[in-house]
Amino acid sequence: MRASKYHINTLKEAPAETEVASHRLMTRAGMIRKVAGGIYTYMPLGLRVLRKIENVVREEMNRAGAIELLMPVVQPAELWMESGRWEKYGDELLRIKDRHQRDFVLQPTSEEVVTDIARNEIHSWRQLPLNFYHIQTKFRDERRPRFGLMRGREFTMKDAYSFDRDEAGAQASYDIMFQAYMRIFGRLGLKFRAVAADTGSIGGSRSHEFQVIADTGEDLLVYNPDTQYAANIELAAAPCLIEHRAEPKEELVLTATPQAPKCELVAQQLGRPLSDTVKSIVLATDPAEDDADGQVRIWLLLLRGDHELNEIKAGKLPGFERGFRFATEAEILDSFGCVPGYLGPIDTAKPVSIIADLTVAHMSDFICGANREGYHYTGANWGRDLPEPQSADLRNVVAGDPDPNGGHLAIQRGIEVGHVFFLGDKYSKALQATFLDTDGKPALLQMGCYGIGISRISAAAIEQCHDDKGIVWPRAIAPFEVVICPVGANKNEKVGNISEQIYLGLQEQGVEAILDDRDIRPGVMFAEWELIGVPLRITVGDRGLKEGVVEIQARSDAAAVKVPVEQAQAAAL
Ligand code: ATP
Ligand code: MG
Ligand code: MG
Ligand code: MG
């Protein structure tokens, strides 16, 4: 590629709305342009990054035996009614009508369509196992699209769906995908961690998120550096919340708070006066109603005594027979429209039964507090903007299997870039997707689903790798691997010729190189490529050529190295 024939348009300043580095830098580098909230054009440079991520994902999916197909973005409502998600999914599902007033959705994922394919295509156990995947545009009408490609409304996802004869087979397919994900994120050159995640109404322990480590991540991860243990905060904290409820020493008095209106609302919903004392609280969702990607109702359970706690533990609390799980920060945001710590009005039109403005961070602190001092969340602390939990605080909090000896636990922030999930017969049952088993009888297909946020990865990579000059791409996903910058080509013909030679040589070797033949000031040229984040720059200058050298500057290194002209090409491989 020659820069003069390409489209490069960088900006000195980023729009004020760009809050995080990736959004700011992708906009400034001319990789994305906003079309509407959460909807972007991938500009040429940005598209190159996306394609590279896609290719790594595709190669590894193929290697793992998954088979690519392409399912539609627009899907008929009927299939969604069959699965029950037409009712359950909530506002994130964009519903549209065609000219005949028939209902359709823009797919947020494709369980329905793929299960429909499976029930038509898979007849016998001999065809199993099968894993279909596609890389396709998704649409989720996120309540708060933000951070550019990090949380878009229209975005690109790889989603795969495995089909097996039985649970053991489904477990094997899950393990294969897990390993494929480890390879994918390793190849992409990212620091990441696989963490155990909640399985919601599916139950079992087969759900893992792949999290890119970054301070700006929306998720909190708990891990033990000395063992294999790693889980997201919702899962890590859940058991101990129940444990530490057992002997409450203080009471929650809702009246004594500056957020009286909200408490009144809680009281109204509870149908009892505010002066009622409450011994423990749990912010929870009901797995029976909960869907992996569907609408979530968040409950503030105000428990008045140990008997209620025991009921919860035993799964006997009415409406919570299947246990409960923590509401996540994102779910709270989605349900209440309030960001963590925000105490503004609550949208009562939302289908929320009992509401609160606690967040995961609040809950963690609450849990830590309970652990440290054995007390419970009191009225005085209600809604306070609490600091993030410290690792020491959670040390003994995560009960059971992670570390019975009370070892060290650490917390870090992450960006969810992938998710593997065991589905069992959830969709095959709803859509009656069966096959004839070895005994000749029909059986339900056992399924798993596996997502990777292709476009989110590009943003996550930048959150992890950037400096004050711009992006520092891992080579595997950089828009170009090498840029050749001639300096003073108009004065010395040799500069242009040698630049051209190196450029053509690299191209021949399959390196994605770009020759900056735009005849602009070197300072401007360098700053632009540093902003764009190309991993390697070769500067061919008049002065260097007199010594027979060119300069090679790695984007991630402080200093450039001088290399004899004839070795330049090899040095850039
Ligand atoms: P989140 O918790 O961030 O909302 P999710 O759990 O709803 O994500 P999944 O349903 O697990 O997402 O989808 C699989 C992957 O798709 C996620 O791991 C993430 O990488 C990506 N993804 C989900 N929502 C978005 C979005 N709004 N913009 C970009 N990528 C997304
Ligand atoms: Mg989501
Ligand atoms: Mg999630
Ligand atoms: Mg997820």
Automatic annotation (TrEMBL):
Biological processes, Gene Ontology terms: prolyl-tRNA aminoacylation
GO cellular component: cytosol
Predominant location category: cytoplasm
DNA-binding in keyword set: no
Catalysed reaction equations from the record: tRNA(Pro) + L-proline + ATP = L-prolyl-tRNA(Pro) + AMP + diphosphate
Subcellular location: Cytoplasm
TM stretches of this protein: none
GO molecular function: aminoacyl-tRNA deacylase activity; ATP binding; proline-tRNA ligase activity
Subunit and partners: Homodimer.
Top-level lineage group: Bacteria
InterPro entries registered for this protein in UniProt: aa-tRNA-synt_IIb, aa-tRNA-synth_II, aa-tRNA-synth_II/BPL/LPL, Anticodon-bd, Anticodon-bd_dom_sf, Pro-tRNA-ligase_IIa, Pro-tRNA-synth_IIa_bac-type, Pro-tRNA-Synthase_IIa_type1
Organism, as annotated: Candidimonas nitroreducens
This protein's name: Proline--tRNA ligase
Gene it is expressed from: proS
EC number: 6.1.1.15
Protein family according to the UniProt entry: Belongs to the class-II aminoacyl-tRNA synthetase family. ProS type 1 subfamily.
Keywords: Aminoacyl-tRNA synthetase, ATP-binding, Cytoplasm, Ligase, Nucleotide-binding, Protein biosynthesis
Domain notes: Consists of three domains: the N-terminal catalytic domain, the editing domain and the C-terminal anticodon-binding domain.
Keyword Aminoacyl-tRNA synthetase: yes
One Pfam family in the UniProt entry: tRNA-synt_2b
Residues annotated as domain Aminoacyl-transfer RNA synthetases class-II family profile: 6-474
Biological role: Catalyzes the attachment of proline to tRNA(Pro) in a two-step reaction: proline is first activated by ATP to form Pro-AMP and then transferred to the acceptor end of tRNA(Pro). As ProRS can inadvertently accommodate and process non-cognate amino acids such as alanine and cysteine, to avoid such errors it has two additional distinct editing activities against alanine. One activity is designated as 'pretransfer' editing and involves the tRNA(Pro)-independent hydrolysis of activated Ala-AMP.
